[in-house]
Amino acid sequence: MIIADKLKQSNRAEYLLYMWQVEDLIRAYGCDAERISTEYISRFNLSEEKRKQTEQWYADLCEMMRSEGKMQHGHLQICQNILAGLTELNQKLLHSPKFPYYREMYYKVLPYIVELRSKNKQAHADGSSEDEPELQTCFDILYGVMMLRLQKKTVSEGTEKAAKDISTLLGQLSDYYFKDKEEPIDFD
User: Which member of 20, 50, 126, 159 has the greatest number of CB atoms within 10 A?
Assistant: First the structure.
């Protein structure tokens, strides 16, 4: 919760990836808020007040995951809303003549998106990955790399480069998100 609060105010892309990790952590504890409290939160040196806030935050997320049917897979509506907002902003930036640098960064990562979607299409005969926003694919790549690193698995040089370029794009998108919130961006 503490990290989530900081990221929510500073980097939307990292916040979304963090929330995906939290969803997986909650699933690992069977969406059981009591287990999360006793087996996970108890490991941290938190004040009584911060511990209670953190326990409530996880309990609320557990309830959301149950009520939204996300206990096995998928992302909470709050995460989907963040992705939708970033996707909308991404489209505005790409279609505006005022942001050629952003468009250049986007077209630099587009081959990675196409490649991953092609691999996913081969793995999933239903072609489901074609319906997801391109930014979803970017986040999937970064989350996959993060999981490989956490498992201490080797990440290929090509995948490292893709992750770096995608991180740069999403970092820039996050910066534009906060600029737009501070004072609406003129896209025309």
Answer: 20
- Locus of tokens 């694919």: 137
Rounded Cα–Cα distance for residues 143 and 89 (Å): 21
Distance CA 12, CA 5 (A): 11
Of 5, 31, 29, which is closest to residue 19 (Cα–Cα)?
Answer: 5
Cα separation, 62 vs 122, in Å, equals: 34
Q: Can you tell me whether residue 57 is helix, strand or coil?
A: helix
b/e burial code for range 81-119 (CB count within 10 A of at least 16 → b): ebbeebbebbeebeeeeebeebeebbeebeebbeebbee
Q: What is the pLDDT of residues 59-77, one digit of tens each?
A: 999 999 999 999 999 999 9
Q: Both tokens of residue 86?
A: 């970033």
Which tokens sit at 140? 């999937």
**Whole-model pTM above 0.85?**
yes
